[in-house]
User: What shape does this take?
Amino acid sequence: MHEMDHISDSTLRAQMRSVRPRLGIIGGGQLAKMTAAAALRLGCDVAVLERSAQSPAGNMAAHLLVGDWDDPVTLLQLAAAVDVVTLENEFVSADSLMAIEGAGVVLHPSSQSMRHIQDKMIQKEFCDEAGIATARWMSVQTPLDVMTAGETFGWPLLLKARRNAYDGKGNVTIADPSQVERAWAMIDRNGGLYVEEFCAFERELAVIVTRGRDGTTAVYPVVESIQRSHVCHVVKAPADIPTATAQRATDLSRQLVQAINGVGSFGIEMFLLPDGRVLMNEVAPRVHNSGHYTVEACMCSQFENHVRAVMGWPLGSPRMIGRACAMVNLLGQRSGSGVPGGLNRALQVPGASVHLYGKLTCQPGRKMGHVTALGSTPDDALATAMSAASMIEFGDPA
Assistant: This one.
């Protein structure tokens, strides 16, 4: 058991009382780590709640609480030690989060904002009500419902889990009716399912929107994200799209975050269709992989602006400081150790910034770090980032 497991609320409050402001983060992954780094730079004391004593954010936190995210008692223990609580993921139920607000502690995003987002079918319903365009979708309870959706939308289509789906997990592409039964058996149905029309998009776009407590917003440049096996592999900033298209994506993203009364940084993922239409795909109520480039490329990163927003401080400028930037995710190639090979070589690439998350183990497709680079164009920056990224490997040799 971690030493924090048996520390009383009063003792924890006493330990943290000498340093203010105090920020609590639910979740201890790489997003929490980078948020904590920004908070520490602004003089915050950081407490992290994570299910394991070993996590990327663990060594960034002044205080680490090990426990279940969804346990209201544990959430209240975290809340009692800090001034503000935020999240690095959307997996904690809105009902559990209400315990924090019920104790009079500031929570951003709020439980109500999370209620609109964490169930992805409710996301779709909310977007429909707000007049925000999405791909067509349909709730399904049986394989027969999926067949009906296929007849309505055409094939292929996507079968999706309503909760806890990310990085390709909880999504199955169904090419034709013969694959329905197999897809139904493959996917976790506990949280409910829905079907979404397949979008033959031209490219995938993303925007980070940070909204403060006072309603002011900072909207970052529209970027292009390139996926590999449903996991973000490359981000190019800014996206090579017409100005009018970028403005539509920006307006849609700002509208969505305002509609849910969100506070903090939000990642908005969109599809750009060949006819120029922009459809909302998904919104993440947190800092986002598509915004990692902002650390090197923008006047104020998505992480710092998230801290500023949830703490009630003025937002910084999201403007890029150079002409272009690219980010490459470092994804695990095989199972094994989280110790990186080739790091010395990668650190010798001029202009490449290497970020390692410190995960102890690696699995195929797991996000282990990322590399960013600035350049005169996104492709120029990408060449530099790719050069360094190609030298780093995780996992035991095959």
Notes: Residues 56 and 122 are 31 Å apart (CA to CA). DSSP finds 13 helices and 20 strands in the chain. Confidence is low (pLDDT under 50) at residues 1-7.
